[in-house]
Amino acid sequence: MTTRQSGGGRPPRKQVRLAARLPGVDGTTLRSGPRSRGPIDFRSFEQFARTAERGLFDFLLLAEGPEGPGEHRGRTDDLDAVGRPEPITVLNALAAVTDRLGLAAAVDATFNEPYELARRLASLDHLSAGRAAWHVVTTSDTSDTSGPSDTFDAPGAENVRRGGFPDHADRYSRAAEFVRTARALWDSWAPDATPRRFEHRGRHFTIEGEFTVPRCPQGRPVVIQAGDSDEGREFAAAVADVVFTWHGTPEASSLLYADVKARLAAHGRAPDELTIMPGITVVLGDTDAEAQERAAALRGQQISPRTAILALERVWGRDLSAYDPDGPLPGIDPAPERVLVQGQGQGQGRGRGRVRDPLAVAAEWRALSEAKGLSIRETVIETTGRQTLVGTPSGIAAALDVWVQTDAADGFVLVPHPDPGGLDDFVDQVVPLLQERGAFRTEYAGATLRSHLGLPEPVGRSGKVDP
Ligand SMILES: Cc1cc2nc3c(=O)[nH]c(=O)nc-3n(C[C@H](O)[C@H](O)[C@H](O)COP(=O)(O)O)c2cc1C
Q1: What is the pTM assigned to this prediction?
Q2: Does residue 153 have its Cβ closer than 6 Å to ligand 1?
């Protein structure tokens, strides 16, 4: 949202939105070290949530995918969360140890059902007194290791798939109808707190009855969207309150920002009814050089020799286990077809498959490796990293503020690498500087997530929706 705040005689200033994301299936989080308790321990979630609330963040987002941990030729990826709890359940527990922080869960609109999910989200909204959000995800049917490393893969969705995997457009059409149906259910209680019958007949769902959860404190939980395709952006413009993106440079982000905001008018919405928040990873240091050193050390930890070979095999589509990670890239070309590395069943590792355009990615990697004299591992480190901002707290506060003031973003979803503790430095060192700049709140003004985001409470309607 583009609320502006004036303080200390300064002109009104667009406010930066902040949120934090804890990955589910993942390829970037470092859970090693003496303080790490692993991805299933509630205390890890609690620590993260308390830090985000101390930083006055709008919300904490728990990522999720239908797939199990990323696996390749029978071995689980080094950095994947093996054993992770179901996000909405965790958020219900977090509601009891936080007061103001918004609580957002990624839940797939391809594999769930509106009545059940609407109930679970409305229940979370009641238990948290108005802090629930739903990140509506649809799950990709391909992965692309040249982009973010935690893409979400259909091949891993066998554990929940019913019949064939729907194509891209169908997934979005189901998601749009899913959200409309869920909203009709949330709206189905009359203002005098009596339930009314709902009825929905559509292409994907035909349901009727009475919704069992009373109208929730926010009216409707906040809706977050992240897909980047044309359909994904249209879907966001039609239904989302927040867009979460991976466009991690101001240039890329401002293009997306202008595009998505321009789509709102066709849906009868104003630009500030949708908040756009790129996911960013920040590495801090007392000096720029120290921050760079720390960033390099983190990348080295993330890309072990084994992970480097694995990333290479996903591009080349061949068994490259005999290659030395500290040696040069393979002279042979990637396998041309979309066949996958031999080994498990059809040969595809779960969770992450082959990149979209292997020949182009291989050519890019080779060019980089030759130009800079990089080994396999160094090339993977250089090409798959996602450390958006590396620098001093003041440099980073200034950069974030500029992104927001120039409408390249409305705010950011922080995705820290080390867990736990990855968010503390940002909250302790960068948040106060954003506050000094008059670009970030110094206290929560309201109690609900809608109020943090400046969104009005929606007006309840009848239980009928258009298909
Ligand atoms: C920033 C971002 C975060 C995402 N987070 C999740 C997630 O937590 N779980 C999931 O299953 N899919 C997630 N997705 C996948 C999207 O829901 C969607 O399925 C995918 O991006 C394909 O749609 P598109 O072609 O419109 O981009 C995410 C996508 C993006 C861009």
Answers
A1: 0.88
A2: no
